[in-house]
Specification:
It contains twelve helices and nine strands. By secondary structure, it is of the alpha/beta class. This is S-adenosylmethionine-dependent nucleotide dehydratase RSAD2.
Length: about 325
């Protein structure tokens, strides 16, 4: 099953506790997400039914959002830079080990921009630990690609199964409007460069696109086929209170939202693309229109943390959450 992780200092205990949060994705209709929030310890919590703890779902696939910081300013962002905190490496490893012991098979690292902390070295050490020490079948990353260097592939590429790069348009002017850019650097040129590195260093290449008012009428078929990713994950932009909508939000994403009909027309236009994977953005336990995190797995353990979720296993499987995610099993032609 797919879960989301985050971290933060406790705001109510006398000495700061380092929290690695297990934040669980609510999958609605054929919906899911790779985004999460930074969570805080709660002083009061409902009594946990121990029967539910014993029968808790195994966290097979986990998304770990270990940073909120990002060098891009995408207007629809659902995981904004409300804090710069990053959990210390050894505490992060401890949480990952707990997840492995509870049944995790796939870990996906995201942010924010995961290559920002220590110029990608923090991320590289986590990737290396998950593959070499925990021996996970699949280790993947979602990135905007702007901070990735070839030297990173040379050092850590053997331990990475999948690298997903976010790209919403192949028109640079559109990317600028969206905020998917840094200065005058070409996001598209960088995408092609990373695609070549993935081929060279034997890392499966994936593309994520958020469909919004600025790109909904585009036809990306030719460019996607040229890049030939193993998966093209297409997200519909939605609003989440406190992240990209509402008084406390750092983004105002209302102008990016499209209708269900517009999203369907985009999907119909790209129906010939065999690697297309459809996701409509839903995050954590969002049943009340906001992100509701669980307790920390470092404090209560994985099984009890899962019990605070709104996870829908059937919808996770229906939307293709379980797939061939180890590059050793993909039989790709390098």
């Amino acid at each position: 099953m797919k879960y989301l992780l985050d971290m933060q200092f406790s705001s109510v205990v006398t000495s700061p506790m380092l929290l690695l949060q297990l934040c669980i994705s609510t999958l609605h209709y054929i919906l899911a997400s790779v985004f999460s929030t930074v969570c805080y310890w709660r002083t009061t919590s409902p009594v946990v039914d121990q029967r539910k703890v014993r029968n808790a779902t195994t966290p097979t696939s986990v998304n770990y959002h270990f940073t909120r910081k990002c060098n891009y300013k995408c207007g629809f962002c659902f995981h904004t830079a409300k804090t710069s905190f990053v959990l210390p490496l050894e505490e992060a490893k401890r949480g990952l080990k707990l997840l492995k012991e509870s049944g995790m098979e796939k870990i996906n690292f995201s942010g924010g921009e995961p290559f920002l902390p220590d110029k990608g070295e923090f991320l590289g050490k986590l990737v290396q630990y998950c593959k070499q020490d925990l021996q996970l079948p699949s280790v993947s990353i979602v990135s905007n690609g702007s901070m990735i260097k070839e030297t990173w592939f040379q050092k850590y590429g053997d331990d990475l199964d999948i690298l997903a790069i976010s790209c919403d348009s192949f028109d640079e002017a559109t990317n600028q409007l969206i905020g998917r850019a840094q200065g005058k650097k070409s996001h598209v040129d960088n995408l092609h460069k990373i695609r070549n590195w993935c081929q060279q260093y034997k890392v499966a290449f994936k593309i994520n696109s958020v469909i919004n008012t600025f790109n909904v009428d585009e036809d990306l078929t030719e460019n996607i086929l040229q890049l030939n990713p193993v998966r093209w994950k297409v997200f519909q932009c939605l609003l989440i209170d406190g992240e990209n909508a509402g008084e406390s939000a750092l983004r105002e994403a209302e102008r990016f939202v499209i209708s269900e009909q517009q999203f369907q027309e985009f999907l119909d236009r790209h129906s010939s693309v065999s690697c297309l994977n459809i996701i409509s953005m839903r995050f954590l336990d969002c049943r009340e229109g906001r992100k509701d995190p669980s307790k920390s797995i470092l404090d209560v353990g994985v099984k009890e943390a899962i019990c605070f979720s709104g996870f829908d296993e059937k919808m996770f499987l229906k939307r293709g959450g379980k797939y061939v995610w180890s590059k050793a099993d993909m039989k790709l032609e390098w």
